[in-house]
Amino acid sequence: MPEAHPDHQPAAGPEQGTSPDRPSPAERTPADGEAACFPAPGDSDEPTPASHGEPDEPARNSAGEPGEPAGHGDSRAPVPSGATSPGRSRRWLLPAVLASVGLLALAAVGVTVARSGPVAQWHDGGADGQSAVEPPPAVLAVADVNAPEPAAAGVRAALDPLVNSAALGDRVNVSVTDVATGAILYDQGAADGTVPASVTKLVTAATVLAARDPGHRIPTRAVAGAAPGEVVLIGGGDPTLAVDGTGFYPGAARLDELAAQVKTALGGVAPTRVVVDSSLYSGPVHEPGWDDDILSEGYGAAITALMTDGARSDLEQAKRDHDDGRHAAKRVKEPDLHAGAAFAQLLGVPTGAVERGTAPEAGADATAGAPGSELGVVESLPMVRLVDIMISDSDNVVAEVLARQVALARGQPASFSGAAESMRAVAGELGLPVAALTLADGSGLSRANRISPSLLTDLVRLAADGSRPELATLFGGLPVAAWSGTLTKRYTDVAAQAGAGMVRAKTGTLTGVHAIAGLVTTADGRLLAFAVLTDRAPDDGLTAARVALDRITAALAACGCR
What we know:
The structure is a single chain. This protein is α+β, with helices and mostly antiparallel strands. It contains 13 helices and ten strands. The protein has helices at 103-108, 118-122, 152-163, 200-211, 255-266, 293-296, 315-323, 335-347, 383-393, 396-409, 416-429, 453-464, 542-558; strands at residues 172-178, 184-188, 219-224, 230-234, 273-277, 354-356, 374-379, 503-510, 513-521, 527-534. Strands 2-1-10-9-8 form a five-stranded antiparallel beta sheet, with helices on both faces. Helix 4 runs parallel beside helix 10 and helix 4 (200-211) packs across helix 11.
């Protein structure tokens, strides 16, 4: 279920080809004074822990984060200065560069803010002629690299009583570091591998941005088959591919446009058969370590190289549920054949004439229309946009596909195991501490995953220090405390309100597992990276555990800790 659902949007122009109430990020520019960096309030695509009778909690299953109601009423924390109101926010609009704890915060630690720089180019609309969105104004308290640095003793005094909360169980691993200097301010089991749940997506994001050019687009191709009239649809791994302009992901590549290219390329030859080639991926389509209800409750899907709309089966219902704050969705059992059937209808081919197969090799001297020759191609949104969707929505299907992009970039099998091994290798090349890193998937749904808090804080620092500018795009999708995503309705406890608007973080939840990792600005204006992970919390203590995590990060926001 997406981690940040959009409010209803104004209708896109008829030429846009997007859902009427959900404009494409490439097609929408912010109004004067409107911040372009926040996703609208919403909820998680992480599956939710089984209901344990906690009052006022939404229904949940055994493995992730609960959905929140769509309406937020007057109980919201004040909107941060410079940010849009919930009614005007644009969930699907990505930032040009930075949406962290204020632009100046990241600029102070080395991130270059420049519209003409490479990050702006990565967000460029490209062939459609759309330009990059201007960098947004600072939207939270601006961190100051010259602010007094907290002392480790002060941080420990503030956090020790909170970290030892019974609500978090008997194994709570924590890392807090100063973003500008890298000084370790708190270390409790910081090097210990811990079940991370959905904060795994931070590692997926960093590794795919490092392995692929951030402007990389995933192609979906059609080539001529072995027999006249046969069309082979080749999946390249784009999970956002749409059938037409009413797709779930605005701005996505479209099969109807590919079908039009095919018809033109074939000339007077009528298509007679569609062959679906999803052979790019290998291995099982479900990760063996996923809880039983991941698929039945609609939080995951069969991961195939060809799919439309994240394998959602009832698109209109999924969009209604998404906008109402209910983000689990029924998924088709065979996403590749489902996409092939839709493509066949667009070509006028009977759905009974759709089968799996592989594309013929095109000879070096192949003429147009010869077996294997290209009939058309459409491309996904740029990689940075897909990463933003994955983080802001906590989209599990997008996460698994991006993990496979790391494997493909490394020349490894595009499977769960190939992706996991490749992600670990790239993380090591980034200089992250991988001794305690174990990965089984890219979404965090597997309980076999282990990530240390220190790896997460090192990752956040690396993304912010300017040495790897492509990683700075990580910050655009991170939810903001008491404002967006999985943090929309958190930080309302009196002891946690200091974190509202000051914390930006990725959350993760499985039954007995609770995690949060990201950035916080202290009362003195210092920017800190933090990660708090517990994997032995009481199974029936979801609300208490979340409040405990909120209080820990709010304590960092409230103190100078000197």
